[in-house]
Design goal:
globular, eight-stranded mixed sheet, alpha/beta, binds fe (ii) ion
Length: 244
């Protein structure tokens, strides 16, 4: 469903009650896309806010699914403009909403930047949304930022995997079973946004252990399939010498 014809912002259900909001941007070289994910439940959660300047588009897209005021949690992987640029605008629009992030993010940035205190999660800590629950997984420096981490939604097996598997281009199907590792590795070769920290492989193994069925990528299509296998393929691509 297109929610803004000018920008091409659209909303699609990529897993039961998990909605991908996507805005294509053709002004960037080669085109790019910015996704947010909305989990509709008793305590609705948004993963990533989008850029601050995209706030009207994201608000309009959320409103096509549910009243924005119902939002309870505004979660994000790490502190960058596309991940949390309109955090305060969302907190203002939704009086019950609270930032949801890892402990490092809360300590270093969010409890200063945000207009309401964060609910800070330890590695492995879960929060109930009602029917479903999300679990925070610390992933420092994978692909970048000390405070980086991800949420795993247990009911649908969806891993909100942020900048992992970032695909170039502006237009993508909402969800695909096709190759996302190839395009994201091609992009990384030209624009390496990974920190290549020593712990990358063990962190990818930790994410793989959740055995996700959907990888909710922030840039490009969401992907469905054997998420464990694909995360381990990414680990091999990042450190080919260590691949077995
Ligand atoms: Fe990022
Ligand atoms: Fe991003």
């Amino acid at each position: 469903m297109i929610t803004n014809p000018q920008s091409g912002t659209r909303v699609d259900e990529v897993a039961p009650e998990v909605y991908r909001i996507s805005t294509p941007v053709s002004a960037l070289p080669g085109g790019f896309s910015f996704n947010q994910y909305l989990v509709v439940d008793e305590q609705p959660l948004l993963f990533h806010t989008g850029l601050r300047r995209m706030f009207p588009l994201v608000r309009e897209a959320i409103a096509a699914v549910m009243p924005v005021e119902r939002l309870r949690w505004v979660a994000f992987s790490h502190v960058e403009a596309d991940e949390c640029g309109s955090l305060n605008e969302l907190l203002a629009a939704a009086p019950q909403a609270q930032p949801l992030c890892g402990r490092v993010a809360a300590m270093v940035s969010v409890d200063d930047l945000a207009d309401r205190p964060a609910r800070a999660l330890a590695d492995g800590e879960a929060v109930s949304l009602g029917r479903s629950a999300v679990r925070w997984l610390d992933a420092p420096h994978l692909p970048h930022a000390w405070e980086c981490g991800y949420l795993f939604e247990e009911r649908t097996g969806t891993l909100f995997c942020g900048d992992l598997f970032t695909q170039p281009g502006a237009e993508h199907p909402p969800v695909t079973t096709g190759d996302v590792l190839g395009p994201s590795e091609a992009m990384r070769r030209g624009l390496d946004y990974f920190s290549h920290a020593a712990g990358s492989r063990s962190l990818l193994e930790k994410l793989a252990a959740t055995r996700p069925r959907t990888l909710a990528c922030m840039h490009g299509s969401a992907w469905t399939g054997d998420g464990r296998g694909l995360l381990l393929e990414l680990a091999d691509a990042l450190s080919p010498a260590a691949a077995s």
